[in-house]
Design goal:
Blueprint (H helix, E strand, L loop, with lengths): L27 E2 L8 E5 L6 E8 L2 E10 L2 E6 L5 H13 L4
Antiparallel strand pairs: 1-5, 2-3, 3-4, 4-5
């Protein structure tokens, strides 16, 4: 679907609210491990927490931007191969992992 085909008022994917028994992910401090990082997908910018599925050096990871009153805190998941990283991304969107 092209950007001009999106419904009026559409502004991005919102992750589901955490489900009962959700898993806590270990978020790590960001370290520059690659020169270029590509953002493949992201959640809506209107939220206090924005997630990005990123790719670099043949691996994928999830970056989390938490917007607080005193500034943004950016953390990331561990770097994974494609299948486990996509599974993690899906579980974040479904509210099973935070």
């Amino acid at each position: 679907m092209a950007i001009d085909e999106l419904p009026a008022g559409y502004h991005g994917v919102h992750p589901a609210h955490p489900k009962a028994g959700w898993e806590r992910l270990e978020w790590r401090e960001c370290h520059p491990c690659a020169i270029r990082i590509r953002v493949l997908e992201h959640t809506c910018e209107c939220q206090d927490i924005v997630y990005e599925l990123c790719q670099a050096g043949g691996l994928l990871f999830v970056r989390r931007h938490y917007r607080a009153a005193d500034g943004a805190v950016v953390t990331e998941s561990e770097w994974l191969r494609a299948v486990p990283a996509r599974r993690l991304w899906t579980n974040i969107l479904l509210g099973h992992v935070r």
